[in-house]
Amino acid sequence: MSAPTTPPPSPASKPSVTEREARQVAEAAREQDWRKPSFAKELFLGRFRLDLIHPHPLPATQDAQRGEEFLAKLRDFCETKIDGERIERDALIPDEVVNGLKELGALGMKIDTKYGGLGLTQVYYNKALALVGSACPSLGALLSAHQSIGVPQPLKLFGTQEQKDAFLPRCARTDISAFLLTEPDVGSDPARLATTAVPDGEDYVLDGVKLWTTNGVVADLLVVMARVPRSEGHKGGITAFVVEAASEGITVENRNAFMGLRGLENGVTRFHRVRVPAANRIGPEGAGLKIALTTLNTGRLSLPAMCVGAGKWCLKIAREWTGAREQWGKPVAYHEAVGSKISFIAATTFALEAVLDLSSQMADEDRNDIRIEAALAKLYGSEMACLMADELVQIRGGRGFETAASLKARGERAVPAEQILRDLRINRIFEGSTEIMHLLIAREAVDAHLKVAGDLIDPDKTLSDKARAGAAAGAFYARWLPKLVAGPGQLPRAYADFAPPGHPDLSGHLRYAERAARRLARSTFYGMSRWQGRMETKQGFLGRIVDIGAELFAISAACVRADLLRTTEDHGREAYQLADAFCRQSRIRVDELFGRLWTNTDDLDRQVVKGVLAGTYTWLEQGVIDPSDDGPWIADAAPGPSERENVHRPIR
């Protein structure tokens, strides 16, 4: 495309927004309605709707057959064509590996067959990511970023037929895509987005800089979020575009390097007067954030998929190593201090797979709204996988800290335990950090309360608005609160189907989850009553509320999956044992979290933070050398032509 013959209007300066305005932007991007049932939403309201997830949903026979056939081909490719050690050493995925995955159809796993894709279900897409990610986590990230948040998913949900016809066949077989939202000074607060898309005739002209563009270094197609200025005929707002990566004015200025995922093609991309046809706009102006968040509702399931794969590998290595390594006359596995770690890894891997498969199958069936379930799966999976990898490193001792290359050089098995710990760490940040996920899920968890009582705590509402809200809230809570007093969790024979002869009794864990769900709802109500409009600032409290919900979801999923395996005569008794172990471990964590809702150091922590920022404790920093250089904390991202070499490297 040629450059504009006349300069477009000057890009708007970086938006300056208040905290309230930023929250309003995020709120406007939320899906406001609940048109389908949600197990997790009901859970946070104190309603334990086991009927929404039990019996466990199953894939259609033809979907399972197609998925298994592809997994067999993919496994052979991973075992024979992927050299994870080489990728880690060279910090680069060879082109022939990516091209081999293209030939297999791996770029189009989630794309419909009518566009040249494989049309796999979410369940089998996740199994494929777990498999590839176990061979090379950087490759798993490449495929996930391409299909879960790159061009295919937003086009599937929001694209026109013309856009699908034009781009999906390319994404299915040849073209790698990337998703560009983050900027050097914009992370989880998109209201401050500075990249602009200025209307100019039949085009938009993009100017700005995007940071941490996963796949951006090698991408052929980009999904770019940019701010359209409001003008006559243009609603404006944050808007999504499909952009050709080879367009004039696009420069990949840097290939970023990280502590893990060394093969990740992640960079900094600058746009300078890049012309994008209006036909490439996804959805209407101003719908960009809603498109991004909706895309992530199922897209987030790709990360826990790779976390499950990591857990499986950690369990395998822990089993083999602790059985072979002897200390004080017996294998180290039989020393309680090590054995408890192995039990944690085994039980947690079982639960994570249960959460993932349940959420994925519900996504495939499309009977339930899984926005909270997917978010919980991402949050819980990324946190627990890091803990499992850390425990594996500890089990391996000095060998866990030693690199695989060093182990191999001195004649031992090259086990990349320290690498998996580094590779997994980003999952607590990718696609919504743990802290942001806590707030996102908490917002959905209190949605019902805000709908009936939100005006009571909104300082901008009039007295008449508050009076109406008070009447509505009174009616709602008069019906809701009494239901939180008693439930099936107090009946000794409730959930008796989960106590079959010859198996551990899981019914008690489900009764516990039902009681805890009601307690969780009461705690949320008490918090709202106590803090009202300040509730949104109580991030410690909200985080613990969400963590309790995540544990209860995992308990429920583990029990339901164990019963599925029992009824299908596939490791049923062993599955019940793992579910029982996980639920007992999880209940200890839940009880601790409930205690920390009201007994914590949150207020004291805020005082210390004020002191730190005020310089009160700078004396504590004395006696060390800071190896950092004196560069800026945040790089300059002013729009303009690039002064750097273009390191864009399309796969050949």
From TrEMBL:
Positions with biased composition (Basic and acidic residues): 17-33, 642-652
GO cellular component: cytoplasm
Cofactors demanded by this protein: FAD
A GO term, aspect molecular function: flavin adenine dinucleotide binding
Residue ranges occupied by any Acyl-CoA dehydrogenase/oxidase N-terminal domain in the UniProt entry: 68-173
Keywords: FAD, Flavoprotein, Oxidoreductase
Chain ranges of the Acyl-CoA oxidase/dehydrogenase middle domain: 178-274
Domain Acyl-CoA dehydrogenase/oxidase C-terminal residues, every copy: 286-444
Sequence ranges of Pro residues compositional bias: 1-12
Annotated catalysed reactions: a 2,3-saturated acyl-CoA + A = a 2,3-dehydroacyl-CoA + AH2
Residue ranges of the region described as Disordered: 1-33, 630-652
Protein name: Acyl-CoA dehydrogenase
Annotated source species: Streptomyces spectabilis
